[in-house]
Amino acid sequence: xxxxxxxxxxxxxxxxxxxxxxxxxxxxxxxxxxxxxxxxxxxxxxxxxxxxxxxxxxxxxxxxxxxxxxxxxxxxxxxxxxxxxxxxxxxxxxxxxxxxxxxxxxxxxxxxxxxxxxxxxxxxxxxxxxxxxxxxxxxxxxxxxxxxxxxxxxxxxxxxxxxxxxxxxxxxxxxxxxxxxxxxxxxxxxxxxxxxxxxxxxxxxxxxxxxxxxxxxxxxxxxxxxxxxxxxxxxxxxxxxxxxxxxxxxxxxxx
Amino acid sequence: xxxxxxxxxxxxxxxxxxxxxxxxxxxxxxxxxxxxxxxxxxxxxxxxxxxxxxxxxxxxxxxxxxxxxxxxxxxxxxxxxxxxxxxxxxxxxxxxxxxxxxxxxxxxxxxxxxxxxxxxxxxxxxxxxxxxxxxxxxxxxxxxxxxxxxxxxxxxxxxxxxxxxxxxxxxxxxxxxxxxxxxxxxxxxxxxxxxxxxxxxxxxxxxxxxxxxxxxxxxxxxxxxxxxxxxxxxxxxxxxxxxxxxxxxxxxxxx
Lengths: 255, 255
Fold this sequence. Notes:
The structure is a homodimer.
Chain A: E1 6-12, E2 15-20, E3 23-25, E4 31-33, E5 37-42, E6 46-54, H1 56-71, H2 84-108, E7 115-123, E8 129-133, E9 139-141, E10 148-152, H3 158-164, H4 171-188, E11 196-202, E12 208-214, H5 219-237
Antiparallel strand pairs in A: 1-2, 1-10, 2-11, 3-4, 5-6, 6-7, 7-8, 8-9, 11-12
């Protein structure tokens, strides 16, 4: 099954970086663009960012439910949860409920009834953080050694993140690295596509620092794509050559 | 499902490069190593290399059948087919037959009954080539623009191949690039592991040029891993920085 999405979040000492593609489809002839980044923020109090991968209609149902819970002034909403763990648990439960409700019908018609989320941000004085929320509703935070999370079509763009991103990486480098990772993925898989949304949250600011939506022709995206390709080719050219000297192994043929 | 394998073949003007990992398992506590590279060669007449991804027992059954067909002197064997297309068609049929025979039992016990192959080489005076053989028995050759094929856990190691490999790439560079691609994959996925087998076939030689099996501690593998990591980090450091100046978009929060 094509993944049709690539979203990632990076948690460094300076703060958080979120990135998401916008390609969605509802059948091979209904390619479209749709945001996969949802921001729940009250400046000075809390900022929560949600990135989604999976069934688009189900995602909308879940996001709508999250908003309605707030409008209904329920005790347990993204405006009320005490910390990010509680936020992740709450979103996981809403997601599981709605997947159970619509899942059977979707599966019967050949659609995938699953949605995976990344939830991150900061609530009050607690530490900023990022969590992966599985379709089953359970969740995990990122590792200390590789402080990033990915959902959707994650593999093409993982090696560069694993090589570059550490807790002490500056947010500016995390931003560039997210774009390189996103670009490698879009280059490899037509089901991941622009615009790319980027959002930066700075630790303890309790407000969104920066947001941008980068279209296909964004000059920075084009410049980075060309520069990275050239630098990879140059770097490859400087690798030590493989020498067959002294290697005398033989593979015995079967014929 | 974990893929448990990464194999690739590259077809450049100078000839062909084959690479395969050796990690297999038959359950989480039965990790083992096993060759996924099989050579059918008659020096001066034909060389055929087969790389496999998928169920290990089924692969063995297929490889055994290919050999027995030759021992039985059947008209249609890897020793007898007139060209690589016929070889791919023949291997695809044997694969499909044996998957059909064992598939139901394997699927019932939760195993995957599928095997995917890369077949490449040269027969007589025809062009060298590489083919991907699907579990269904159908096959395709590589594209002219990206003259390589991958099976198994292909995504982590694809971007570097797509950036470097062209028809005119020298075989020595193809060899290095295959190792970089393999190393990025092994670094990202524990189900792909050493030793890495490498085989070079030079156009029109009708014999295997070089073969090596590189263990975990192979000095060249270790040197390349460290050098590539350092060069990627350096290259990344030279990318243009992302500037938020003049970008005034705002993401409206839902709270």
